Amino acid sequence: xxxxxxxxxxxxxxxxxxxxxxxxxxxxxxxxxxxxxxxxxxxxxxxxxxxxxxxxxxxxxxxxxxxxxxxxxxxxxxxxxxxxxxxxxxxxxxxxxxxxxxxxxxxxxxxxxxxxxxxxxxxxxxxxxxxxxxxxxxxxxxxxxxxxxxxxxxxxxxxxxxxxxxxxxxxxxxxxxxxxxxxxxxxxxxxxxxxxxxxxxxxxxxxxxxxxxxxxxxxxxxxxxxxxxxxxxxxxxxxxxxxxxxxxxxxxxxxxxxxxxxxxxxxxxxxxxxxxxxxxxxxxxxxxxxxxxxxxxxxxxxxxxxxxxxxxxxxxxxxxxxxxxxxxxxxxxxxxxxxxxxxxxxxxxxxxxxxxxxxxxxxxxxxxxxxxxxxxxxxxxxxxxxxxxxxxxxxxxxxxxxxxxxxxxxxxxxxxxxxxxxxxxxxxxxxxxxxxxxxxxxxxx
Length: 445
Ligand code: GTR
What we know:
The protein starts with a helix and ends in a 15-residue tail after the last helix. It has a 9-stranded mixed sheet, sandwiched between helices. It is built from 11 helices and 9 strands. The chain is an alpha/beta fold.
């Protein structure tokens, strides 16, 4: 290496180091949220009369009347219309790593075309999703942990660095090619890629895809993709938002995973961080197949209550990310309390399936307390299904009892070792080790 290049490299390292320590110190000064739960209970009470629907007295009242009403309301007021389910086609399947001696399992790349009701601006007219599927060695069918990646799947494939796995526009957070070490220094060791080897050792398969292959996470370019996914006849203020499109994408991926005999279709577990946590919750609210969900720091329009003015306001989220939502959501910007639904009702739509909500003590924007109270607010519906009540009172770790669980780890917004440790022990505890071909009791929605 010439002297000039050494100098440039040195300068880059020094500037990066300074930026990281300045940014890191500033962030570490963000105050902790209180150690005890604060704030009012979720409203409206989940079983109370809602609009013209009388109070819920039984499980069938919930399933037949209230759940469809809430689904309609979440679409019209927050997320926009869910796209129509049409089907998928596997265009290619490449084995990137075989379970040879020493290898921990098989790594495959699938290219999947999603059929849509209408042709759209995607190359070839329909969305094409890059899916990386990692299956452990040994005899399945394996439970599979499925979730979206922020910036494409490149970081999942350390041996293939340099491959650009998406051709879609990426948001600025993806750094326009910023070195992976910068991203992981700020957002945690697992910001870009789940700990695949640990998962494999624990007997889980991993499915990761890039939701931005369907709707790019860039407000300036997302609209034509959203328009193409919006069912014909939908009022303009309810056009499909990107979170709904990504939730729909999760369901299409579950179509693929559910058809794979190496995977256990009754143990497909959805997870997501932040915006993808919002999408994971929404997806499972509309799709009975995810057997459990882990939403990490999903915040506003995720697990956090929105009517209490704590955490990220509707005004901010709809200004920064107008493409994520139905245009109608922005009309609540100055009057959040006027929205007659809240996120505990979304979580309740997942009942009786296990839900783990993860938060960070310094992530005020993600509203840990509002997320805890949302679980509490959803709990009466879980009890209707005969599930053990959500009795957790401490924020730090789940109490290891019910299927609703919460944790708050130290630190900021990101994905760290502790998050995966909490998630795996939750999945180990709540998702039965199914014997192939026996009914997976307790998990059926
Ligand atoms: C933030 C946004 C949050 C959260 C987060 C993320 O900028 O305000 O709602 O979704 O992005 O996805 O990382």
